[in-house]
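Whiteboard transcription, Tuesday session. T.W. wrote the structure tokens on the left side:
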């Protein structure tokens, strides 16, 4: 009689052992397959490049028109005129930044003022960006780049931008210290046109959750599209523990909806259900058709109008103080045709989306579902730790395009 391998085992025990060994082999097999399927850095870069090309192709398929309510640009909203606020500090800072770049870096950084590079930005991390990044700079070059930001932004805007960069490092820490994809130095500068006191020019900063487009014509400035966001919005551990952003934007939005009467809220609230991402004006959405919704400014009382203007000012004040005042004057002229819309509930711990929309400004705030921290929370539910905000100039003046169009009409472009 042939001996069994484990003669004292009962049939039940042998069955459990076989099942256990089978499960072990299955897990090991899937683990090996999963590991082997992880792309190498070069493979991942190739994938990111392909996705970036596809995004650009789709996003730039149509020439720029601008965000409209019905597909038609409202004319005569923006004019070439003196703002009374000097842009000399910005021009000098841009010259100083360009002066410290190497010839190779300048080749990657400089574009013509009407180049589609303006439209090539993305708030997602995978996008392969143009220009020279902080990661590629010397200390002197980084200081010059920060000098350009400091000259162009308010102290609040500069701090917000730097804090977003820091939180992108935190995101890397929360992904097993993955600093190949995330980090505080993966933000890239391009300069369009030659810095000038008369001719149009501008600069762009592009990176994960932070995009600034800064167009200059004489002493006029257009700083849209602009994107500020993060995941997480608060660092509870790590190198930048304690850093937190976008709390005022969140709280002032909530205060605005709760300042409305019951009848007004019925108009402003589009839906109390907030189960998905709502923003519509993000990357490669330059020509979105977005009708006014919610409650109109003309239906607000004087105090509510001022509160709505204060909410707008929270975003506009990321510009340098002088040009922020100029922009707010423009916004105020259209306050009666400024609409406020809301999605979600209105309690302190609610997740929500809100939009402020007029002929001259579009602001969106959105609590988003997890993207790069799906392993830490329910991937299907928006939360307070992933926020996107975007600011646009509707009716054709994102990137200063309408001012540039008028400039070319007055001063025909010479090739």
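and on the right, the sequence the group agreed on:
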């Amino acid at each position: 009689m042939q001996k069994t391998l484990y003669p004292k085992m009962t049939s039940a025990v042998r069955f459990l052992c076989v099942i256990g060994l089978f499960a072990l082999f299955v897990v090991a097999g899937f683990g090996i397959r999963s590991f082997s399927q992880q792309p190498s850095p070069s493979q991942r870069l190739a994938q990111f490049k392909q996705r970036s090309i596809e995004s650009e192709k789709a996003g730039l398929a149509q020439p720029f028109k601008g965000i409209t309510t019905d597909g038609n640009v409202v004319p005569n909203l923006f004019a070439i005129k003196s703002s009374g606020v000097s842009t000399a500090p910005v021009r000098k800072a841009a010259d100083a930044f360009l002066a410290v770049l190497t010839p190779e870096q300048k080749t990657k950084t400089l574009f013509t003022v009407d180049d589609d590079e303006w439209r090539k930005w993305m708030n997602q991390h995978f996008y392969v960006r143009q220009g020279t990044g902080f990661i590629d700079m010397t200390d002197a070059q980084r200081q010059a780049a920060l000098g350009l930001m400091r000259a162009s932004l308010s102290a609040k805007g500069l701090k917000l931008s730097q804090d977003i960069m820091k939180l992108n490092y935190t995101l890397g820490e929360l992904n097993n210290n993955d600093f190949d994809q995330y980090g505080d130095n993966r933000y890239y500068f391009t300069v369009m046109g030659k810095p000038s006191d008369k001719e149009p020019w501008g600069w762009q900063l592009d990176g994960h959750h932070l995009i600034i487009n800064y167009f200059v014509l004489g002493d006029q400035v257009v700083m849209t599209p602009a994107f500020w966001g993060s995941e997480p919005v608060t660092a509870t551990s790590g190198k930048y523990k304690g850093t937190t952003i976008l709390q005022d934007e969140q709280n002032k939005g909530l205060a605005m909806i709760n300042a409305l009467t019951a009848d007004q809220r019925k108009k402003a609230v589009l839906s109390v259900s907030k189960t998905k991402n709502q923003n519509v004006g993000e990357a490669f959405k330059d020509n979105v058709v977005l009708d006014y919704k919610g409650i109109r400014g003309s239906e607000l009382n004087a105090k509510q109008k001022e509160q709505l203007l204060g909410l707008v000012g929270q975003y506009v004040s990321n510009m340098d103080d002088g040009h922020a005042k100029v922009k707010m004057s423009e916004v105020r002229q259209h306050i009666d045709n400024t609409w406020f819309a809301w999605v979600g509930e209105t309690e302190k711990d609610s997740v929500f989306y809100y939009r402020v929309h007029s002929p001259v400004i579009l602001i969106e705030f959105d609590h988003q579902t997890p993207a790069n921290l799906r392993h830490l929370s329910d991937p299907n539910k928006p939360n307070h730790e992933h926020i996107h905000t975007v600011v646009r100039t509707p009716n054709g003046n994102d990137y200063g395009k309408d001012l540039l169009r008028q400039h070319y009409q007055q001063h025909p472009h010479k090739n």
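Someone added at the bottom: The chain has eleven helices and 13 strands.
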